[in-house]
Amino acid sequence: MNTCVTNNKFVNEWIAEMAELVNPESIVLIDGSNEQAEALRAEACKTGEMIKLNQDKLPGCYLHRTAINDVARVENRTFICTSKKEDAGNINNWMDPKECYEKLSKLYKGSYSGKTMYVIPYSMSVVGSDFAKYGIELTDSIYVVLNMLIMTRVGLNVLDALGDSGDFIKGLHARAELDEEKRYICHFPEDNTIWSVNSGYGGNVLLGKKCFALRIASYLGRKEGWMAEHMLILGIETPEGEVKYVTAAFPSACGKTNLAMLIPPEAYRNKGYKVWCVGDDIAWLRVGSDGRLWAVNPENGFFGVAPGTNEHSNPNALHTSMRDCIFTNVCHNLDDNTVWWEGLDENPPVNALNWKGEVWDYKKYDKKDKVNTSGAHPNSRFTAMAANCPCISDKFNDPAGVPVTAIVFGGRRAKTAPLVYQSTSWQNGTFVGSIMASETTAAAAGAVGVVRRDPMAMRPFVGYDMGDYWAHWLNMGKVIKNPPKIFHVNWFRTDDEGHFIWPGFGDNMRVLMWILARCEGKVDAVETPIGYVPNAEDIDIAGLDIDIETVRGLLSVDKELWLEDCKAIREFYAQVGERVPAELYTELEALEARLAK
Ligand code: GTP
Ligand code: SPV
Ligand code: MN
Question: CATH topology for 302-388?
């Protein structure tokens, strides 16, 4: 078999080695052309891997179902394989690289027999830009190829930009038997290598995304002096036409896509405010020559949560997903060959298949057992092109990225965290990020709704020791002359019946307005033990169904709850271990002292 599919010796040698291992019947280079993609779509429809949807209603759209045991990221089977265990840290799973290569080689062996090996050359960020990093993913899945074509910049120009260099991330993916007991998502940061086996699901197999653009990139960022973060990037345009950029880190399925594409409340629209989306999941951040922090979105599309997306919550995401889109694990409406998910509208299809492909009876839906009774899986997703997003920023393809005014952290907390507060410095802001906690969601396998610490929304994605990662944050603060201000938000406080108190979605703009006003020094705040909290009057609730007392409640800081939280933070810091920077312990002690006063 001809394994010389490129002009690059390093690429060809690696492909030959991998082909020897997995034993494909043929090798196909993905060139980024529409003709090739169209042929692959046709083939996937023929084998049942994808279903072509109603092309009048959903032009260019397809449906895919993953295996029933393969519907989310698998954190307990995700490994960082550094030669020294301590470099992966206590929060990551670690395996010795040699042992891991050997173990996985057995699983890969002959796994492509009778199949095609697709070679996907892709770029994270604009090809040829200063931020760009290149990768090649080998896969046996057309679904992966078609997703990567949307999510990254794929094509022969990537190979041209790579030239004869060996500096690319080597990704090997095989579905193998889709056996969850043999599923491994392994990262070898010292070798620029990612190995993923026995999965066909999103974050486990689209190797440019979490594996490369977060785990490997965070490792590279520390070495090279930049940051890779689980952050959306949005621009807020004022009536004067000035655009301010904000990044925000929320854990998986906690509202990044929604905030990134928000439509401002009517009163703001009438005044001339607009919101532009630069990215919804990942930000690469660097210090610019002007001393500010600059952000790019290394991705080219959105792999967004479907459930809850509708005409009111996120019309921009809905419209983005209405063409050239791959739906994964949603409900299939057989009457008109379209798709549906919980929270799309109040009319579940009567003649439909659920995410498993079984005949589905919407009347049997039980909120307590969503996975088995819903039409769409709670972690069902749409893969859609950024270029199709009505509010995509004109800076989306700008190689320089955008300057960041504010960084926002946030999580799902029923109590404790107020609607919004501001940290008092970069160091204190790093502390605020490090103590983030959130209820777990369906985005990862395991229990849902359990509060766990998720620092900077990066717990599953830091490619090295968490303590070193925090030290890197502190160090970055020292080299950014004009650093963004750091905030924390919580859209998810609930009342005694468990209902969300804050309306959320587009109305989150009201909180962003306070954040920008703080950055410009235009509004006062109340100093509390945890940081600066708004005066309730300064959160604009005109036109909302809530009163100022409710806002006061949302902004309240319960010292007892926070002291409880401090205990959990101490435990977590102890678990992270020796490399927790002393500055963060200083911050924690100061917080405890202020709370105890
Ligand atoms: P990943 O792609 O997993 O990283 O997630 P994400 O952070 O982009 O989450 P996304 O915006 O897709 O939101 C996940 C879920 O949270 C969806 O079901 C949303 O409807 C819901 N959600 C988002 N924003 C809000 C909000 O402001 N309030 C409430 N109550 N729910 C929200
Ligand atoms: C997340 O889980 O944070 C996602 C989806 O964005 S996945 O690509 O599956 O990781
Ligand atoms: Mn994510």
Answer: Phosphoenolpyruvate Carboxykinase; domain 2 (2.170.8)
